[in-house]
Amino acid sequence: MVLTPAGLPASLRYSMAFYRSVLNASLKLRYLSLRNAVRTVVDRKRSACRSGVHAHGERAELVAAFSLLRPFYFRQYRCLFDSLALIEFLARFGHFPSWVFGVKTDPFGAHCWVQDGKHVLNDDFERVRIFTPIMAV
Amino acid sequence: MSSYVALIWNRESLEASRFAGKLMDRLKAFRSQVPIVNAEDFYLCLLSEDGKPYHDCTLLDGGGVLVGRVFRRDGRRSSTTSRCSPSPPETNDPGTCARDLVARYWGHYVGFVRHSGTRHVEIVRDPSGAMPCLMTNRHGVMVLFSDIRHCVGLGILEVSVNWSHLARFLCYDRFATDETGLVGVTQLRPGECLSVSENGIDRAFCWNPADVCRARVIESRQRARDELRKCIEECVAAWTSCYTGVLHRLSGGLDSSVVLACLHRAAVRNLVCANHFTPGSEGDERTFARAAASFVGAELVEMPIGSRPTPLSSMLDTAIVATPAHTNLLSESQSALERLVGTRGLQAIFSGQGGDHLFQQGGSIQIAAEYAWRNGFRGGLLTVVEETARLTGRSFWSVLAAAVRYGILRRRVEWTCDRFDLSPLLTAEAREYVEWSPISHPWLEDARSLPGAKFLQIANLIDTQSFYRAPRRYADIVHPLLSLPVVELSLQVPSYVLAYGGIDRALIRDAFADAIPETITRRTAKGATTGYFNRLLIRNLQFVRELLLDGNLAAHGLLDRASTEAVLHESAMVSRPGLLWPLLNAIRAEAWIDSWLRSPREEAA
Questions:
Q1: In the structure, what pLDDT confidence band is assigned to residue B172 with cuts at 50, 70 and 90?
Q2: Residue A101 and residue A118: Cα distance in Å, rounded?
Q3: CA-CA distance, B19 to B27, in Å (whole number)?
């Protein structure tokens, strides 16, 4: 399915999931420490693995839907928020990719992104390759 | 490229005439000096770097001289870059003026037009600023020159540093005023005309980017794409006609790949591409450079920088120039480049510089605002707002608000000193001076009635003038994307046509889609040298401490010793990335001062 702004009304399910996800991510980053926000992601992933949650929907299509809807949430792009929001969104469809944190020196910089296997889902590989991963959730 | 010295004086003044005579005698002692105009109150001569008895110069019908490489706008090649004869030009009928020159020619030049029968001389500097036009006055003689070394050689320069200019340089190294780093030496700004007559001296801009924007707007994407490709190809072909051997600095980015595609099309006989890479992955774009070179079958030389721990002290360029610039801190790569140019018989260094500035590389909310400005709420405003939001990482709603504010209500974009991050190394006195001094440019004043995106594009265009400030005396520097026809065309294409679909530089990607590899067309990330420079400074902290804390800037109250000392530690350098560029500017400024304090006369002609 090709998603276009004109096609959005037909993708109501995605829209609802998107707004729940971005609100959830906003609340977590507002009221939880980063450690606890990460823990909620870990716990959900573990519990999904134990209960054998099945993924529904194509991952690429879901990422495209998220990307298409993203400008309609008022928050400016920030890697921490955007990665957590995408993880929340994909989790609603049974996908549990990794949330990767990386750092670089000379000068210091920190970044995070969402990755599934070798595929970076919400960034450019060339941009993330300069960071050394220090944690993958 | 040739250099020149021009003298203008009032022939009725005995003192001025005598002094002018003295200067002409001194000039005759210069190697390979060729007089072009030798009149009662105006003298112009050319001097060549390589000692060959001919120079790049075009004599115009009616008494004009263009020093440098020039091309006719109408595409006729007959008089472009003609080798001049040492005979003076005909001066019967001027029939031209500075504005006409800019309208008829483009290239790297300074033009001199002497109106016969009068004392009226007009001097114009080409809008790209590639050819310098420095000025000083001594004993009633106005001396204009392209190379400060000639001014030193004439013995008319009393070296006195312009400290207020240096204070501004420490904050923003690309600002463009008529000042230089030396007291008493000013410059004609790119696109500016100096008129000297019985009535006095007048200065005015004879080319203005805001006028170019107003003259035509190309809304059609297809037309803009076709014109852009044709224009870039023609400009690159024109430049290549001047050289038999070209070194192209191929970074692996979109713009340098576009220039390479055009060089290939122009069938340059001796073409060598060079890619500088730093061991850190951020500055290593070899994969893309290799793809671009192999796509057109060009030779690629990969040049590592920073692989050997070269001391910073040996990397400071001591060549004297009139104003501090991006003084060479990459000596290891530059010396390798110079060797390559020499061994391979190359005469010019090309690059893709300027593409980011002209073709909407950075995302800006002003893209949507320009659409709203030109089209109101009609058509695809919401689509452009959504695409701009995607490009900038802003929300749809904030971009829509900006489109209404700047596009519908036409609020002006503020561009004042707040654009410059005040260096944390400056003393309070120096900060105060910089905050209050006028850094703005007349081009920007005229652009205030344009859409914000065009205003910012013109500000970027002014920044590009700094690319020509660091001279390379062993080869011509050519940035073909900054050729005037390309600049003018890009100014006439709205930002939402330059960057459509939420993709930066979308139009030029599309225009050259079949001429460069797909990996580069799709590439949006850019390489950076930040890591290399940061490591360089950390490795040389002791030297940097001595240079800055015991240096001239601190002694003259520009650098705050305590603040500077506090940041010169590895932990600060690693954790505060914002320190790097102020520190580099301070080092460049110290190196520049040092180049004058050493022994400038040794370097003079």
A1: confident
A2: 15
A3: 12
- Give CATH superfamily name and number for B215-358+463-521: HUPs (3.40.50.620)
Please name the residue of chain B whose CA is at the shortest distance from the CA of residue A67.
B390
Minimal Cα distance from B520: which residue of A? Answer: A126
- Give the number of other Cβ atoms within 10 Å of residue A87's Cβ: 24
Of B394, B399, B535, the CB nearest to A106: B535
Question: Distance between CA atoms of A26 and B258, rounded to whole angstroms?
Answer: 42
Put simply, whether B400 touches A (Cβ < 8 Å) is no
% of chain A with per-residue pLDDT over 70:
90
Q: Phi and psi at residue B438, in whole multiples of 5°? A: -75, 115
Element spanning B205, H or E: strand B200-205
Strand B105-114 and strand B42-47: the pairing is unpaired
pLDDT digits (tens, 9 = 90+) for B70-101: 999 887 554 444 433 333 344 333 335 788 88
Domain count, chain A: 1
CA B144 to chain centre: 20
Residues of A in contact with B534 (CB under 8 A): 106-107
Query: What residues of A are in contact with residue B540 (Cβ under 8 Å)?
Result: none
pLDDT at B176: 81
pLDDT value at residue B175: 76
Give the CATH architecture of domain B3-207: 4-Layer Sandwich (3.60)
Contacts A107 to B, Cβ<8 Å: 530-531, 534, 573-577, 580
Interface of B with A in 407-446 (CB under 8 A): none
Query: Any CB–CB contact under 8 A between B525 and chain A?
Result: yes
- Model confidence over B552-584: pLDDT tens digits? 999 999 999 999 999 999 888 888 888 888 899
Q: What angle do CA B54, B194, B97 make, to 5 degrees?
A: 75
In tens, the pLDDT along B16-71 reads: 999 999 999 998 887 777 888 888 889 999 887 665 545 578 887 767 889 999 99
Is B534 part of the contact surface with chain A (CB cutoff 8 Å)?
A: yes
Residues of chain B with CATH 3.40.50.620: 215-358+463-521
Highest mean pLDDT pick, B112-121, B356-365, B450-459: B450-459
Chain-chain contact of A107 with B390 (C-beta, under 8 angstroms): no
Burial state string for B192-227 with b = 16 or more CB within 10 A and e = fewer than 16: bbbbbeeeeeeeebbbbbbebbbeeebeebeebbeb
Q: Do A73 and B574 touch (CB under 8 A)?
A: no
Put simply, the answer to whether B523 touches A126 (Cβ < 8 Å) is yes
How many residue pairs bridge chain A and chain B with CB atoms within 8 Å of each other?
A: 59
Q: How far apart are CA B71 and CA B81, in angstroms?
A: 7
User: Which is it for the CA torsion B439, B443, B448, B450, positive or negative?
Assistant: negative
- Quick: pLDDT tens for B365-404: 999 999 999 999 887 999 999 999 999 999 999 999 999 9
B398·A73 Cβ contact <8 A: no
Residue A19 with chain B: CB contacts under 8 Å: none
Residues of chain B with CATH 3.60.20.10: 3-207
Q: What is the ipTM score, two decimals? A: 0.86
- Residue B199, chain A, CB below 8 Å: the answer is no
Chain A residue with Cα closest to B398: A74
Compare CB distances from A72 to B396, B525, B573 and report the shortest one's residue: B396
Whether A35 is in a domain gets the answer: yes
pLDDT at A99 > cutoff 90: yes
pTM of the shown model: 0.91
Q: What is the per-residue DSSP string for B512-580?
A: TTTTS-HHHHS-------HHHHHHHHHHTHHHHHHHHHTSHHHHTTSB-HHHHHHH-SHHHHHH-GGGH
Q: Residue A24's domain spans which residues? A: 5-96
B531 to chain A: nearest residue by CA? Answer: A106
